[in-house]
Structure of NAD-dependent formate dehydrogenase gamma subunit:
Amino acid sequence: MDKISIGADLPKEICAKYQNNPYALIEILHDVQEELGFVPEKLVPEIADLLNVTRAHINGVISFYEDFKTAPIANTHLKICRGEACQSMGAEDLIKQANQLA
């Protein structure tokens, strides 16, 4: 499957894999993201209906865990340490430079 195409049955198939169990929400979101590369906002209402939970609950889980993405992400990822030791070595300047180049 193409990373950005969304099959109409994808949410149903993934939720069915977990017997539409709302306690499997994190696993379901991981499977959606594995399939598409992100969790599209337009799938949230259908997943909510299938699991009998609110959209707010799903959006809360997505926003709480920073590993979930709601938009396609670039092929190249840059992570910069923000710890004290890294800051003392110029991490903030590096972040500013990276943002200027993005």
Confidence is low (pLDDT under 50) at residues 1-5. Residues 74-102 form one domain.
